[in-house]
Design brief:
Length: 89
């Protein structure tokens, strides 16, 4: 089945999280928040299991949060960052 065309301003989000570090619940919570509050602007949210302390959020392939480089931040701050990127045209 062909993928449907995306409306302008929609994005694909990928959340990679270290399962052994206990970041899975945080990733699931962020995914749930994005899908429930940003659904018109987010086409998909993918969860990717990782290790070595990773907690990384990418939007359309671009890293918007990497806990190796940034403070991980709170879910609302991450959602707002993704929301602002998703609205860029």
């Amino acid at each position: 089945m062909p993928r449907r065309p995306l409306p302008a301003g929609t994005s694909d989000v990928e959340i990679a999280s270290c399962v052994p570090c206990g970041f899975l619940n945080r990733a699931v919570g962020l995914a749930e928040t994005l899908l429930s509050t940003s659904a018109p602007n987010v086409d998909s949210v993918s969860l990717v299991t990782g290790d070595h302390g990773v907690f990384e959020v990418c939007i359309d392939g671009a890293v918007v949060l990497d806990n190796a480089e940034d403070e991980a931040g709170e879910t609302a701050a991450i959602r707002n960052r993704i929301f602002s990127i998703a609205h860029r045209t």
